[in-house]
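Re: Re: ligand-bound prediction request (bumping)

Still looking for help on this. To restate: I need the protein modeled with flavin-adenine dinucleotide bound, output as structure tokens. Inputs repeated here so nobody has to scroll up.
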Amino acid sequence: MGIPQYIAAIRNDDLEEGLRILYDTNPLPEICGRICTHKCETVCTIGHKGDPLSIRWLKRYIADQNPSEKYKKILETEILKKNGKKVAIIGSGPAGLSAAHYLANLGYEVEIFEKLEKAGGMMRYGIPEYRLPYDQIDKDINYILSLGVKIHYNVTVGKDITLKKLGEDFDAVFAGTGLHLGRSTRIEGTDHENVYQSIELLRKITQGEEIYVPEKIVVIGGGNVAMDITRSLARLQNQKYGKVQVIATSLETEEKMPADREEVIEAREEKAIVNPGWSPQRIEIVDGKIKGLHVVQCLSLFDETGNFNPQCNMENKNFFEADMIVESIGQGMDVSYISEDIKEHLELGPRGRFRVNDYFQTSLPWLFMGGDTIQGPDVIHGIANGHKAALGIDKFLVGE
Ligand SMILES: Cc1cc2nc3c(=O)[nH]c(=O)nc-3n(C[C@H](O)[C@H](O)[C@H](O)COP(=O)(O)OP(=O)(O)OC[C@H]3O[C@@H](n4cnc5c(N)ncnc54)[C@H](O)[C@@H]3O)c2cc1C
Ligand code: SF4
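Reply:
Sorry for the wait, this slipped through. Here it is.
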């Protein structure tokens, strides 16, 4: 991103210019201005001498100060005439939305096929509203829609329409379908009805659905998603019982937990207990009711060859009381929308993901893929993948 340039625009108090700079590479500035993983700040040179610049908040400042009614006027100059070509996009997460935005700007007719009721993917159905308010998601998305991008909601590719049909009806297809399948530890007891996946609970919470909230909950996982569900459940317990008893536990020790430090600190501020460094062994169930989680101390996660192979001290045991267990140990992809006859033309790359070139084009030239299913792990990578894919599609269809 043109970080020095947009900081200069703020210094010059030219926030319209700032917005134009943001949109060169990022069509979701309200969203990134709030929840971006802000790796730019990790490498910010000022950080060598003290705290880095708050690049993320500066992005938010520019977006917040420009009212949505003015966006079209400020940014419209860039839009080219329609070129008569059509691109289908599967999924309206950051990868799909970014591809849509840049393709629309290049003159393509763009139609997004989204299986859920609203657009945004995990930004709307995963990230809790206290971190990313829905009206700010809408502000970014509405601008993309104003460019003529169409979204077909409640349409599941692979069920309501096939990928093959999209390939026939459109000049190219971009798929950004994300990681929406929960993963289980598969320890004894995980088949109990009160063992949940964080991803399914977060989807219900973000949709305003009521969920089961008992007095004692254990969350297994030490990443940001685990912190999101821990904090969301802590808030619900507080509302219901006036007190919090959620314990989040992970294999990794405090220093190695993958969650951002600020998320762990804020989870504790909300009275959740974060107790890392334990390996879950078994869920205790008595008379059909969950009583808690047995754990042993985890000493290391990987062996000398770098393979995931946790080593434990079986003598150092612990027991976390709970009426409900939530597993939050990562997500998997659902590619059942790709039929076998298409799959056999797709080469596989590392970690069982489909192989793509630098422009996120698969080995089937009309099919591009990006976002969490290809790279991940965050919104800004999805945006960058969608942007690159849009350029790749243009290169493929127009040769430029
Ligand atoms: C709880 C949680 C918190 C997170 N917090 C952050 C954070 O703070 N900062 C950050 O940068 N990242 C965060 N992430 C990660 C971030 O949300 C993802 O990296 C990003 O959303 C991935 O974008 P994507 O476009 O690849 O997929 P997604 O956002 O997952 O979107 C995929 C879309 O495709 C649709 N879809 C899937 N299959 C089909 C089909 N067959 N037919 C039609 N539509 C389909 C889905 O419904 C969905 O809308 C978080 C993730 C979670 C789960
Ligand atoms: S999008 Fe994220 S990583 Fe990129 S400049 Fe903004 S805050 Fe930094």
